[in-house]
């Protein structure tokens, strides 16, 4: 509310939020939070103690039902570690979810799927800022994964035994610096070219909007050169 000029201070924001029924803040940090001003609002009479208790009660009731205040021995998840989370069963399920989440918009002349038995006789080229950059493959509010479990398009194809060449063309999604000559040199020898483009959190995320839907920087030029 402060950022949208509905209020003029954290104190005003705390009062307006509590009066509106809000009982939980997505905080700015550890020290400078809006709801840290609730005691001041209470002392000034902007909110009442009964109102504060009414807001807190459902919040803590929910946290209790979730077991946040239970001893660790009562929490069935407290004994889980990476050996369980990254077990083969869970990783296979993640792979299945990833495979089934793809959306195929167009499949000219039945190009896809690429058949594993044909890959050894073909030269594949993977290009683009998303072709082999694990950092940019995850969206906003995504977890921080272990690097060893991240499979970029380049890494995935190489695991299939394919003859793969790679050049990013531009190393980051903003694609301000584009190596056209290198891309053309690598693509010229290919049987199949996979172009990996997009935006990612470097370009757009919460509180970072764009004025148009164009590909960032030289990405469109990269695509056109690869096709040409």
From TrEMBL:
This is XYL2 arabinofuranosidase. The lineage of its organism: Eukaryota, Metazoa, Chordata, Craniata, Vertebrata. The gene is Xyl2. Pfam families: Glyco_hydro_3_C (PF01915). One of its GO terms (molecular function) is xylan 1,4-beta-xylosidase activity. GO terms for biological process: arabinan catabolic process; xylan catabolic process. InterPro entries: BXL, GH, Glyco_hydro_3_C, Glyco_hydro_3_C_sf, Glyco_hydro_3_N_sf. The keyword Hydrolase applies. Residues 103-226 form the Glycoside hydrolase family 3 C-terminal domain. Keywords: Glycosidase, Hydrolase.
């Amino acid at each position: 509310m402060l950022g949208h000029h509905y209020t003029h201070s954290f104190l005003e924001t705390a009062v307006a939020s509590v009066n509106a029924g809000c009982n939980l803040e997505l905080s700015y940090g550890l020290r400078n939070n809006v709801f840290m001003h609730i005691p001041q609002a209470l002392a000034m009479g902007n909110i009442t103690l009964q109102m504060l208790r009414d807001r807190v009660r459902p919040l803590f009731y929910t946290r209790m039902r979730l077991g946040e205040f239970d001893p660790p021995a009562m929490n069935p998840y407290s004994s889980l570690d990476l050996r369980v989370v990254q077990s083969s069963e869970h990783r296979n399920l993640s792979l299945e979810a990833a495979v089934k989440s793809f959306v195929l918009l167009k499949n000219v002349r039945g190009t896809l799927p690429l058949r594993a038995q044909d890959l050894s006789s073909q030269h594949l080229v993977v290009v683009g800022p998303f072709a082999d950059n694990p950092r940019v493959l995850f969206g906003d509010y995504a977890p921080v994964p272990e690097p060893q479990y991240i499979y970029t398009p380049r890494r995935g194809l190489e695991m299939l035994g394919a003859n793969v060449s790679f050049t990013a063309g531009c190393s980051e999604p903003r694609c301000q610096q584009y190596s056209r000559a290198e891309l053309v040199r690598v693509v010229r020898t290919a049987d199949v070219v996979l172009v990996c483009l997009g935006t990612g959190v470097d370009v757009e995320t919460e509180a970072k909007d764009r004025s148009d839907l164009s590909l960032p920087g030289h990405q469109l030029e990269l695509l056109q050169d690869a096709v040409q």
